[in-house]
Amino acid sequence: MTRLAQAGITSVHDAYASAADLRGYQDARAAGELRTRVYCLIGYWDLERMLAAGVRTGLGDNWILQDRPVSNLELVETFANLAQRCGRGVATPEEARRMMGMKPLAAAKAA
């Protein structure tokens, strides 16, 4: 990551990051060694393992929107409003879990 920052690369994408990858990025950030923004794509097939590893809504730094940091709530509201303006509904957490073939939340917590 240091070499990326030295080359002027300010952000990268990590397609299909694993739980270990995310922990590594978080450890590097906590140590002050992560100088490049990393966007991680988590495959739906890996969601249950990621949730068990502590990945949750709000993980990561706040985004910048309209030249100011925003809370996770503002970010979710912004994209929910955009979806609704485009005529698309917003899935509830249980609907999203069902669409991705995941166990209902109560069953996942019991496992």
How would you summarize this macromolecular structure in one to three sentences?
By secondary structure, the chain is an alpha+beta fold. It has helices at 2-6, 19-30, 47-52, 72-85, 93-99, 105-110, and strands at residues 11-15, 37-41, 64-65, 68-69.
What does this structure look like?
By secondary structure, the protein is of the alpha+beta class. The chain has 2 domains: 1-61, no CATH class; 62-111, no CATH class. It is built from 6 helices and 4 strands. The chain has helices at residues 2-6, 19-30, 47-52, 72-85, 93-99, 105-110, and strands at residues 11-15, 37-41, 64-65, 68-69. The protein is globular, with a radius of gyration of 16 Å. The protein starts with a helix and ends with a helix. The mean pLDDT is 78.
Cα gyration radius (Å): 16 Å
Strand order of the largest sheet: 1-2
Poorly predicted regions are none
In which range does the helix fraction lie? 40-55%
The ordered string of helix (H) and strand (E) elements is HEHEHEEHHH
- The average pLDDT score comes to 78
The beta-strand count equals: 4
Note the gap between the termini. 36 Å
What proportion of the residues form beta strands (DSSP E)? 5-15%
Gross morphology is globular
Largest sheet: 2 strands, parallel
Helix/strand-derived category reads: alpha+beta
Count structural domains: 2
How many alpha or pi helices?
Answer: 6
Question: Key features?
Answer:
alpha+beta, two-stranded antiparallel ribbon, 4 strands, 6 helices, 111 residues
